[in-house]
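Hey,

The postdoc asked me to send both predictions to you directly instead of through the lab channel. I've kept everything plain text so nothing gets mangled by the mail client. Protein one:
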Amino acid sequence: MSATSLIEVLRADVPESEHAGSIAVVGSCGRVIAYCGDIKREIFTRSSLKPFQAAPFVAMGGLERRGWGLPQLALMCASHSGEEKHVELARSMLADCSLEHRHLLCGCQVPIAYTQSGRLPKADEVFSELHNNCSGKHSGFLAACLHQGEPIDDYVAMEHPLQRRIRDSLAKALGRDKAFKLGVDGCAAPNLAMPLPALAQLFAVMAAEQSPESFAMVYGDAPQRCFAAMTQFPELVSGTDRSDLALMNIGAGDWVCKAGAEAVQAIGVRSRGLGIAIKIADGNPRAMTWIVVEIFRQLGIGDNEQKKQLQELIDRPIRNVRGDAVGSYRPVFKLNMLA
């Protein structure tokens, strides 16, 4: 199998470009229900993995030890926009650990809020590691190290006990008998590759009322707690005018959504017991929302009001710099249904 065309980019009514990719739809036990493209090739999970980078800490009682609740867990699962609420919550999480921003190893980043809105920072604005979209994840990493009495000066090292624990937990839960292919993410933390059905299964498990035995033995109810945190506080997981926030707001507690860099998207749908994983082959996420809405249409996900709101998300043209409507995105894929 190979990647298949997912989206045509039209200028006027003429196809100008296209984005190919692959999609997997699975149940919580890992059975593939629908697919298109190459679902056997392993892809880096990028930020879509964040709930399962947080899950071992949750499973070992880390939230209770710190007195943290769902907002802090939501930020641990987030690729946030660096808005004030995100920065202040990350700052407070570090303070709870008697740490500060200099202990974060994610690097400094201009907040996504600026790139998302097209605004430029003011000349005198100063940013720190707290503004990095992964500062919540890294604050959770530090708390996890302190919980286990592990060193914090190299917590992103590939062989640090924290990072080995994350990999070993995933391998055991997924029943994987070979080592993950590893790489370094944009925030300097290790990231791992897996086939799309495995990533989709992670989100199906999160969305399930109760995990399958293989996951429950490893994580207890941590995946469900991540689901609750992300769906109840989607504004902490994402940010203003971003797709994960928009989709989870429409889902109203039924859909958990987490994008990753290089055009990765993972979704769990509680009412249907489904996990969905998408990879656009060229790494350009500009048409991802159109792909998600088309998947939902083909699977019949959402009530009439939700379908209306989803349609409103994509009822917008491509515009030039003057604001003229000059083109559109058109989904061109059909899911292969196996059940």
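Protein two:
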Amino acid sequence: MTSFVPLIETFRGGTLECTHFGAVAVADTNGRVVAHAGDAHWLSFTRSTLKALQALPFVGAGGPQLFGFTRENVAMMCASHSGEPMHVAQVQGMLDKAGLTYQTLQCGCHVPYYAEAGVAPAPAPGTYDERHNNCSGKHAGFLASCVQQGWPVANYLAPGHPLQQAIRRDVARAVGLAPEDLKIGVDGCSAPNYAMPLSHLARGYARLATGLADPEFGESFAQLSDAMTAHPDLVSGTNRADQAFMRAGRGDWVVKAGADGVQAFASRSRGQAFALKVSDGNKVAVIAATVAVLDQLGWLDARQRDELRPWRSEAIANIRGTQVGERKSAFQLKVS
């Protein structure tokens, strides 16, 4: 645990109850670490923060133009969506344009996230399918890429498949690593996922956010980051943190959460990004720590600070709504 530092602490009745450890890396487009907490180079699986970079082979080959994908469709490829009707409609539209059915999706099926977010009651079993999976937009993009290139669809998630090899190549280039340096694992949606130092994930997001200014992936980064900032409701969903962050950023912030405590966050105007990992994966702690990083970096104006105040989750309430504790930031970024 020496590589992790306390990021968020919770208190009940004035007594420390929980400590959420983690690490933060703030980097620029060249990979220079400008600030950190804990080990800036901690090796972490990227989980769903990787989605925008996984879309690079398809976007770089002109896939969206070939299939008539809208900006909303491009946003869906980067999404961990809530399975709301607007999300399902977008995924179905993408599959229609690629000439495929939802049965070709290999992401699996789970209860839509909109129930957890308090948007609507959980649907009855049998009334949702793979399109409701939070990763279905990414998978629809994968399948469209296979159709575009004439690659087999049946095994599109196999690490040796041409699509996954192309993704590994482009992800490595985007974050400044060799493909063999990416540690492979399998994500919750059955797609290959890669672990990398937090500093390299931050670098990749700093480049993504700069869009056309990037000398290697400029056009693709512009399409992806523009879609994400234009449609944060599709990238996440109603009452979700990434939606709140990108709306508060007013077009400047490119934001994506990942499972098990990962968060990537870039500022287009600053050419910088940070990657954060909370070791125990606590979602509330991840969001609270993210707001604390923004505050310490000076990225918040008064309006944004007020807008994001609820996401700090400073007050801990019991079932009756009585405040019984508090949640506090426990770290200070060190400038490199």
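Summary for protein two, as requested: The chain has 14 helices and twelve strands.

Thanks,
C.
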